[in-house]
Design a protein that fits this description.
- The protein is of the alpha+beta class.
- It is built from three helices and three strands.
- A three-stranded antiparallel β-sheet has the order 1-3-2.
- A hairpin with a 2-residue loop joins strand 2 and strand 3.
- It is extended.
């Protein structure tokens, strides 16, 4: 008798919590909250909860790999159309 295993695909999250991003970046949550409130790190506030788009981290990573050093504060400014 054979066993059939089903692989469940978990889609990648579009947003991360501050705690998750702090862990990913190897910093404390407090440091990340301070950077967000100082306008030095991008986040979205929804009814008092802060989340960080996964795309921001992807863009920062890609830029760091391409240019070397990335200033997170540059990602808090909206690009003009």
């Amino acid at each position: 008798m054979s066993t059939v295993r089903t692989i469940t695909h978990h889609p990648r999250p579009r947003f991360h919590s501050v705690s998750e991003v702090a862990t990913i970046l190897g910093m404390s949550e407090v440091t990340l909250y301070r950077a967000i409130h100082a306008g030095q790190f991008p986040a979205i506030k929804v009814r008092g909860r802060l989340v960080i788009p996964a795309r921001v981290l992807d863009d920062m990573e890609e830029s760091a790999l391409t240019t070397g050093l990335v200033n997170a504060e540059d990602y808090t400014r909206r690009k003009a159309s």
